[in-house]
Amino acid sequence: MKLTIDNLDGRGPRDYTSVIDSLRLPRVKRSLNKPAELRFSLVGSGPDFVVPRNGARVTLGKMNGQDVFTGYLTSAPEFEYLGWGERGPIYRYNLVATSDELLLDRKRSPRRPPFVERSAGDALRQLTEDLLPGFFDQSAVQDVEPLAFYAPDPQKSWSEHAAEIAQRVRACYRALGGKLLFGPVGGMAWSLDESDARFSPSGLKMRSFDRLLNDVTILGRSEPSTYVKDYFVGDGYSLRFYLSQLPFSQSARTLLDEEYAGTAPDPTHWTVNDTSRAIEVSGGKLQVSGGTGTDGQAAVSFVENFELGGAVELQHGDVILSGASDGVLGGLFPDTLTVAGCLAGFRITPNGSQSKIQALINGGTTGPAISTVAGHHYSFTTRFYATEVHRCQGTFHSSAKPGGQGRGGAAIAADVRFVLEVHEIDPSDPGSLVAPSTVLYDDVIKNAPAFCAYALINARHMYCSVAFTRFLQAPDTEVRSALPQSGFRTRLVGSMIEGAECLVTQDPALQFFPQSLPQANELIEVRYRGSQRSVARIANAADIAARKNGSDDGVRGLVRYMVSPPPLSSVDCENAALAVLDDALPTAWSGEYDTWSDFLPGNAADIFPGDAIEVAAPSRGASFRAIVRAVEIDAADLAGDRSRYKIRFADDAAESLAPALEAARVSALFEIPATDLTVVGRNFLPALSNAEVSDVTSTTVSVDAGISSPAGGGFEVRRTDYGWGQDNDRNLIGRFGTRSFTLPRWARVQDYFLRQYDNSNPAKYSRYSTALHIDYPL
Which of 71, 239, 330, 540 has the fewest C-beta atoms lying within 10 Å of its C-beta? Predict the structure, then answer.
């Protein structure tokens, strides 16, 4: 074997093999999804010996050129005085090196937007390019599968990010020889068979133990639950209206605040495609002057996709249109960056020497048009409110569901309300600063796509400047109101400084600002989701029954809180519990195998953590597939180019690679009924998310369920949100078989809870209720 060290002094790599301490030969430690480490000692004396410096590049490899370790010294050598030799004092130098990703770990991770609907491999490639562009060969980085959402934390090192991304998709990474590798765990498999003539019986040590589970409860984060719709009537002086529930809400925060400093758009935020050189940054503004006449050839796009979930406000900026323009501003595109492919945006078209602004919805213009005036400023804003907060299920893996085949990951359907408005400012008229915006579009797009690309500018031919762009996570509460004989309009929820009309307090209450006082008899609708802890309990009823014996009821249970990936709903908790049950086997195996490099399992040239080991040892009653967790290599025969390998392995029952679990962090866990694993995903009906009150009188409330009733089933209505089922009539108001029905009203404030049910035995119900809250004068 050969050890070379490049002290980065301009003289290139030096061969240090001859001065390796024979009493402390090189030892390499590889661990799954962690940097590898090399420890070795040198004995040097005389003027020709160059003491390795901190940061020097180290390579340990075989004579055939195969690298066993590449990396960098992490500190200056520790030295020991050994005595006096013929050429002077002799010292032992103890050194430690860390594999190539050390260069990435020493860099400061830039703040960048979360990855949204990007593959795990693509996210890892981007993190690498952010730190050391073009340095690593990334041709062996596989995509594996999409990440719905991953937020890089600048406090974490590159290797910590790499490990977390790998854990989420059941993958492994390593850095060796300037090359980055990333792929599914078990992508390489080796056979360890005791019938092989090269097998060493004394080198194999194994142990087995019982890790059976058949009743698993998984807890996750708070989830959006009940679909709540509160109805109020203004009296001309009340500013506060009390909500029936505390809304589920993601924290209101600024997602992006771009002011366009420098000479080009920030590459961590924007992707620029500009074949005509029409786009630049100058004077603190994004400047657009021209285009090729073709979609996408002069475009500024956000680097990540947008999830159309919850409530978001997109402020496309203070814009000055300086000439007749053709293109799209602030567009959301599900597929191609074309006018025809735009889901929602602002269409800019020529109008003489100026331009015309209209809403662009599903590729077509709609609603009123604004003719621009030279020198005027235009602030463009898009707000959207989705019926679902999250648009994609989490994905959870096990040995039975590896990377690319995980449980969950399905898209979540949702309707999305879009509000597009323009605020025109005349610099010569101060009153225009506080004038109301013009709403170009306020309506619902049914079954909207879950993810879209965002293009601030898609210029066919545009002449404009943009002063800022801002993305805001808004409260997940939709407020609409209507004056008598008028249509409903959407009210902006948030901070007064942002021009909002109302906010939601912790009471919980809807608080209007004085300048937005609801008028007498103005109808007010508030739509939001309630909140509860996500939880699921999944059992293997057949296994429990088979294990019953006397006083033993057969249950082998577990209650855990899932850390990563975090379950965001009870559906996620179900899939996580199924992944845990996949690997909860009666017999778990772990072990280690010691052998020379000449006799590695399956004639392998090398073995790395993340490889699979197919163990066949009938004499020990063992036949299983395991994953290599760590490899320790001792360069025991340098001259013979041979090493001793210690390979530690375990199957997922013994040492799970599935999501990270910890003790449930709740003081009291309410008892929930177990769902058999054979019916998961088929035991609930859709919620009545579109149910609404259609009319209110002093004695009745008319309801439209939003869908037709299931065949042989109907809609169950209760006074409180519990007791669902055909056997409980305690708080029941009624069961109805038609889409529209009338309910009795007894008081000014009234609550109704709805779920649909079918004709199964027992009947299936919606997972979440719909709550209709009335606060109308009698």
Answer: 239
In angstroms, what CA-CA distances link 320 with 292, 327, 365, 371, 446?
21, 14, 21, 13, 33
Length of the chain: 778
- Encoded tokens for 116: 């949204």
Give the span between the Cα atoms of 429 and 713, in whole angstroms: 62
Question: Sheet holding 700-704: strands in order across?
Answer: 692-696, 700-704, 740-744
**For residues 615 and 594, what is the distance between their CA atoms, to the nearest angstrom?**
14
Q: Classify domain 103-184 at the CATH superfamily level.
A: Baseplate protein-like domains (3.55.50.10)
Written as six digits, the tokens of 630 are 């760590």
Classified by CATH at the fold level, domain 252-474 comes out as Jelly Rolls (2.60.120)
For 359-401, the pLDDT digits (tens) are 999 999 999 999 999 999 999 999 999 999 999 999 999 999 9
- pLDDT tens-digit map of 413-435: 999 999 999 999 999 999 888 88
Is residue 739 a contact partner of residue 704, using CB atoms and an 8 Å limit?
Answer: yes
pTM of the model: 0.91
The string of DSSP codes covering 513-555 is -GGGPPPTT-EEEEEEEEEEEEEEEEE-HHHHHHT-BTTB---
Supply 242's token pair: 């009390």
Instruction: Dump pLDDT digits (tens) for 174-189.
Output: 999 999 999 999 999 9
665 Cβ contact partners less than 8 Å away, ≥ 6 residues apart: 219, 561
